Give the backbone structure.
Amino acid sequence: MSTRRATARAADTQARPGALRAQLAHGAQRLWLSSLPVLAALLAATGLGLCVALALGVSPAEIGKRLSAGILLSSYGWGQVLYKATFLIFTGLAVALAFAAGLFNIGAEGQVVAGSLACALVGIWAAGAPAPLLLPLAVAAAFAGGALWGWLPGWLKARWGTHEVINTIMLNFIAVAGSNFLVTRYLALPETVRTAEVGAGAWIARLDAALPGMRGSAANGTLVLAVVCALAAHVFLHHTRGGLALRAVGQGPRQSRLLGIVPGPRIRLAFALAGGLAGLAGTNFVLGYKHYYEDGYTGGIGFLGIAVALLARNRPLAVLPAALLFGFLSQAGFVVNTLLPREVVELLTGAILLVFIAVERLRDRHAQRWRAGLATLRPARAAGEPS
């Protein structure tokens, strides 16, 4: 008996390194396949950018110098990248969370406007309140404003079955036009398109308070809130019953029925949470940067959040690097705007998305064929083995 045990232990010891190598190889293959679409998209965008620069008679070396001086080797430049990425983390999460429930949220732009205006109004109305009370109130108002504007298309979808794409697009126009009317007619200071400043107790500190090299940049502590929201969204979707219910609704009516889930309340919840996340983007501008609401400041950050969510495959944690990438592109366009027109950045953004989606589809198709080939080989091997 002892001889058999010793032999089994020796065999197990010899097998472990081989199993470990196989696991490492499998992990490396999965990492390579998952990163392939992103790498292909970045390479394609870089190549396209070089071609456009040469076609316009601009030296790629000069572009490289501008990017190095303005962003790569500049703390201020990175601060601006982080500031712009903060908006996109919130709006990317707003799109990704709704998509987990099978819903396409194109209304992040309007939800940002609603949350920003609510945040500013509460910050002005309660300006005399102490900071420990005023700051949470202003942040909660931003979430509530966005959540209310997100809940509306969710209610229409759950109650009447109207398509969320149409609803959210229309609500974008209503939010932008309504805020413009309120600000210009009632809330703006004379000869401006902005409100009064919120109370100083609601101001969020700039990052240059801890990192002096970023002095002058707009990056502020809202970035921390954005990262916390990404972590919370990941935990909610993948480690709670509520998140499981949302994802079940996103997989279709059959899956919902199997789990005994009524889709209507989950649809309203998904849109309310998505709108709240988008509304929090307003704190980056209202509380962390300008300290007031300014009409038209959003500039399409809600729509760019769709691109961020697509690049992140609607995974909350992957939204962080995707937002950083698009924040970098936005700041890069500003740095080289005297050499290249602004539309080049939009062109590169579109190229990144198109190549990413195309390569991802090709990769998935190849993986399916590979699995199908393995499935046909296994029975043949089993038949050829001696009994």
